[in-house]
């Protein structure tokens, strides 16, 4: 067994103390149980493994990727093990825990001005790939991202709910999770509703994006999302704190945002089984004011 054998098969936990409509059950899929601490372990593993298998990269090559945090940690963990060098570019308002975790796994980290957002980090990664000989996995356009969720996350949800899932709720960042899970669940039952979560205008929620048109992930297909629920920064913060204090689930703000969206859906239903993604663990946000 290697560390990669521990990726996936994360547990579903019933939301039992936060009130929901009678007849509706909400389950949290705890992706923080992955070895790198987030849902991004899945995509990161598949992107590097598949690139090596296809011969797109070889051991010893230099890779570069822009990240808001979780993908970077996952790539850092996996890259050195697989024999490639990883350079990660991210906004400088990322929590110190994230930066230190990436460096601990052996990655180089380049911080960019926070006011230029991750969109600038992406531009810099593309420039380094074009001009300095780096290979960019490009999680925003890489089909290996969503394919891993089609192969693992979707089947796990279907199996663990015994095919009873009626709604799937996910934050939308690179959109790999929601694209892959949507493909799989819709093949099992086309009536399952796929719900995406994005921030309200002006809200900043790490892990959930409202992309400008030119930076919209190329793997995103709007037709695969039945509905989008906007969540404010305040709502996401409150629900993240309630996840910790009432359910014992310490997670990041994107997970609180997904729960807020799940509760919006639940309040409209008489019966249903809702699964939402808890993207990561909250211990990588303890230096921020999220739990202040």
UniProtKB/TrEMBL annotation:
This protein's record includes keyword Transmembrane helix: no
EC primary class: transferase
Swiss-Prot/TrEMBL catalytic activity: O-acetyl-L-serine + hydrogen sulfide = L-cysteine + acetate
Keyword set includes Transferase: yes
Tryptophan synthase beta chain-like PALP domain segment(s): 4-280
GO molecular function: cysteine synthase activity
Xref: CDD domains: CBS_like
Cofactor(s) required for function per UniProt: pyridoxal 5'-phosphate
UniProt pathway: Amino-acid biosynthesis; L-cysteine biosynthesis; L-cysteine from L-serine: step 2/2
EC numbers for this chain: 2.5.1.47
PROSITE patterns assigned: CYS_SYNTHASE
Binding site for pyridoxal 5'-phosphate: 70, 173-177, 254
Entry's Gene Ontology BP terms: cysteine biosynthetic process from serine
Sequence similarity: Belongs to the cysteine synthase/cystathionine beta-synthase family.
PANTHER family noted in UniProt: CYSTATHIONINE BETA-SYNTHASE
Protein name per the record: Cysteine synthase
Source organism: Fulvivirga imtechensis AK7
